[in-house]
Amino acid sequence: MRRAAGLLALALLPAALHAEMAPLAADRSDYLLNCGGCHGIDGISNSRIVPDLKDQVGHFLKMPEGRGYLGRLPNVAFATLPDKELAALLNYTIFTLGGDSAPKGAKPFTAAEVAALRRQPLNEAALFQYRQKIVEDLIAKYNATPALRFYGEDMYGAGKQ
Fold this sequence. Notes:
The protein is mostly helical. Helix content is 54%, strand content 0%.
């Protein structure tokens, strides 16, 4: 009798597990597949390698250059997602993972905006200097968190400063 009950429980286990799992929203799924491996499943990464996104990434929307920076990052610009899905992924990252870091009234990215930005990707040589300038402006002019400075071995991901 015990064995039969055990076998019945095992037979019903997949159905029970499936019933409890809600499908992931497309934007979260796209984030996990395209960004989560480096930036972490909830936007908290190994900040010695890549910057954290959680509660920070929205600060970049406080100025046009920061907004453009996000859409021109190489892994964003060269993502294989169509413009509409990439815009949704950016919006998920900024408005969900970024928490309260996005400014009030910030507009979500549109597919057209993403299409234009990704045609001007940042190259590796310009990336660190561009990020450094934007981060310093965000901190000085918009009261962004100084934590934006830190990733890599030191500040900005470019070694000693």
